[in-house]
């Protein structure tokens, strides 16, 4: 199936139709989720109203890792199969993943101040998410360090796959080390520990934001394909000019 | 909820989230328009890729 979309022109045709639909589904689902989070979900018996921050913090945390996972799969596509759209996908998802990681850190800090009494602690979960954000920043810098997108793609792919070792560290940090951050309460053996009245709005927001992330990813991939066409035409124009009118 | 002593933290979290989303969407839309306009200008000036002329 991946080969069917290997042609950038075919991808652009599919993206043109898919982007608005995926975005609308994302807005509707996350809208329902946020409305339910404020209108129906109760305040927590310990956290009080501050639990509302969880409805943006937790999906941001999940998506920060999902984006990195998508970037790692795309990087394998770049290095192993040399799929024409793999490095386009990897480059397009990097700023989106960085944005979700930034949101996860900021909203976590805004939750931590009233609940833990501090903006930040150097525990394993918080530190590994900060490392994830720094890896995203490093990959974005690497993409901009090369003029040739193919060379940049290979270098970024290697860095992405090396950095992927941080994903299980983020996920299992709360199990491997004694952390201030609470252990997993949704994706865990034995099922979620969150009450259903809080779980379903959280899942609606998470699924909705996942659709929005996919819409943004497709749109950013479309931009990157256009950017590469502009670059190619710019090089053709420059070489034609340098050869002069006789060429 | 507005009476909650931590309301400011909740508001700040959602305002920052909204800013990040608006920023991300604006950047992608602006970039799309810029790339499309540049591409159209190059094509209007007669520059073509070999693969385009074969189609």
Describe, in plain words, how this protein is organized in 3D.
The complex is a heterodimer of chains A (247) and B (55). Chain A is mostly helical and 247 residues long. Chain A has one domain. Helix content of chain A is 76%, strand content 0%. Chain A is built from seven helices and no strands. The longest helix of chain A is centred in the last third of the chain and has 48 residues, at 196-243. Chain A is globular, with a radius of gyration of 21 Å. Chain A starts with 7 loop residues before the first helix and ends with a helix. The relative contact order of chain B is 0.07. Chain B has two helices and no strands. With 55 residues, chain B is mainly α. Chain A binds chain B through residues 38, 43, 48-50, 52-53, 56-57, 60, 95-96, 99, 102-103, 106-107, 110-111, 113-114, 212, 216, 219-220, 222-223, 226-227, 229-230, 232-234, 236-237, 240, and chain B through 1, 4-7, 9-10, 12-14, 16-17, 20-21, 23-25, 27-29, 31-32, 35-36, 38-39, 42-43, 45, 47-49.
- Which overall shape of chain B is indicated by the principal axes computed on the Cα atoms? rod-shaped
- Provide mean pLDDT of chain A, rounded: 92
Roughly how much helix do the residues of chain A carry, as a percent range?
over 70%
| Number of separate strands of chain B | 0
Helix content of chain B: over 70%
Work out the oligomeric state of the chains in this entry.
heterodimer
* Helix and strand pattern of chain B: HH
Biggest beta sheet summary of chain B: none
Stretches with pLDDT under 50, minimum 5 residues of chain A: none
Major sheet attributes of chain A = none
Radius of gyration of CA atoms of chain A, rounded to a whole number: 21 Å
Which spans of chain B of ≥5 residues are poorly predicted at pLDDT below 50?
none
Distance between the termini of chain A: 42 Å
| Principal-axes shape call of chain A | globular
The first-to-last residue Cα distance of chain B is 62 Å
